[in-house]
Specification:
Blueprint: H1 2-6, H2 17-22, E1 29-36, H3 39-58, E2 65-70, E3 74-81, H4 85-99, H5 102-113, E4 118-126, E5 144-154, H6 159-175, E6 182-189, E7 195-200, H7 206-231, E8 235-251
Antiparallel strand pairs: 1-3, 1-4, 2-3, 2-8, 4-6, 5-7, 5-8, 6-7
Length: 255
């Protein structure tokens, strides 16, 4: 049982857009499982998460989850929470749920056993003041939504400066009427504590994202050039991923 709780798949990430909209003024935390997998393992992971979500729904499980994955072999499974005490309560509830349903637990575990190459976890915290919530959703989303993921490694002693520059960037997006969602997350617990995570929902595909992104920076003009020139010296490296959030693999409690 402990094994399935540890391996419940999957980083970044990260966040359900509708939940983020509702929590724009709160710093919601996310327990994130980051999974490395092959295309075949991704198919298995999707089946495993879908089966587990069905199990959760049948038992009225109170904690939501969201799944997103990239085109280069990463899957992030995240569970939002507010206080760290919630994690203890969550674990107790899951242990009880699985112990009371041993046969179902074995079935789900078998699916997870063939769905990953490597798994780790971290805790991220949303930064509403450094984010743009995007358009308010009026119904439960379906299908998937393109996302561009970035991970900035910040040089020692430059955290406050980078935070200031991120705020400038978010302000530029707002000033130029860019309404697509843009989320910023800081690590609370994990292997990398000198990083900042971004999720950008500009565009509906990689090609459209790059096109619109170029147009946006052109609109920013000299302000944008100056901003980027200030960012580069305080960043050690930048990782990027193309991917999507899968709304069909999202579990939202009914109550």
């Amino acid at each position: 049982m402990k094994k399935i709780h540890t391996v419940i798949l999957a980083l970044i990430i990260m966040v359900c857009a509708s939940h983020m909209n509702a929590q724009e003024n709160a710093k919601t935390k996310y327990m994130v499982w980051e999974v490395q997998l092959t295309p075949l393992q991704l198919e298995n992971a999707q089946k495993a998460i879908a089966a587990e979500n069905t199990f959760y729904k049948e038992n009225n499980h109170p904690y939501m989850n969201a799944t997103q994955y990239t085109n280069d072999g990463y899957l992030w499974y995240s569970v939002p929470f507010t206080e760290f005490g919630d994690l203890d309560e969550m674990q107790k509830m899951m242990i009880k749920l699985y112990e009371e349903n041993p046969e179902r637990t074995k079935e789900i575990q078998k699916l997870f056993d063939v769905s990953y190459s490597k798994v780790g976890r971290m805790i991220l915290e949303s930064q509403p003041e450094l984010s743009v919530a995007g358009e308010q959703m009026t119904s439960t989303p379906m299908g998937s939504k393109f996302r561009f993921f970035e991970k900035f490694y910040i040089k020692p002693g430059m955290w406050d400066k980078f935070q200031e520059l991120t705020k400038t960037y978010v302000d530029l997006r707002r000033e130029h009427g860019i309404t697509s969602a843009f989320y910023t997350f800081y690590p609370v617990f994990g292997a990398d504590m000198n990083v900042v995570y971004f999720i950008d929902e500009t565009g509906n595909s990689p090609s459209e994202h790059y096109k619109l992104n170029e147009e946006q920076w052109a609109e920013f003009g000299e302000e944008g050039k100056k901003l980027w020139q200030e960012v580069l010296p305080i960043v050690q490296k930048i990782e990027t991923h193309l991917g999507q959030i899968d709304f069909d693999l999202m579990y939202i409690p009914e109550n």
